[in-house]
Amino acid sequence: MARKDENKQPKAQWNEAEVDALLDYLITQKSKIAGTTFKDEVFNEASNIIAGMGTYGSSKTGPQCKTKWASVCTHNAIERYRNNRSGCHWDNVNGANIQGEAAEAQYVNMFRDLQLLLTFCFEAMRFFKNTGWRFWPKMLEILP
């Protein structure tokens, strides 16, 4: 009897060129967005577009493209942070620009107040306390 793990595909390893190509393709397909995601056909076509660009493992599949899209949707976390309170800073060079203990406390308290401290938003934003996000401009084109 086959175990569940034997049928599972290995985790996709993405290089920056593949992510850029995925986002560039999704920009061309933004008229097909449904809410904050795309239909499976769009991800299947994206997998054909980026085929052969990989430097690790096999070519990406449509479902792997969809999973990658979900992971780059850090956009939602940044938008929630930016729009939550006046005075919340975001730019693509310094990120949230959290400097010093007072700013750190305000940053953590904002997520705590929203009951988001242990959620995806807080996890996604922790990488951008003091640095921008390379994919931000492309994400703004897809999800304005």
Radius of gyration over alpha carbons?
18 Å
State which percent range the strand residues make up. Answer: under 5%
What is the CA–CA distance across the termini? 49 Å
Gross morphology is: elongated
The number of helical runs is 8
Explain how this protein is built.
The chain is mainly α and 144 residues long. It is built from 8 helices and no strands. 20% of the residues are buried. The model has no long low-confidence stretch (mean pLDDT 81).
Q: Keywords, please?
A:
elongated, single chain, mainly alpha
Describe the structure concisely.
The chain is mainly α. The protein contains eight helices and no strands.
Map the helices and strands.
Elements: H1 4-7, H2 16-28, H3 40-50, H4 62-72, H5 74-84, H6 100-113, H7 120-125, H8 136-142
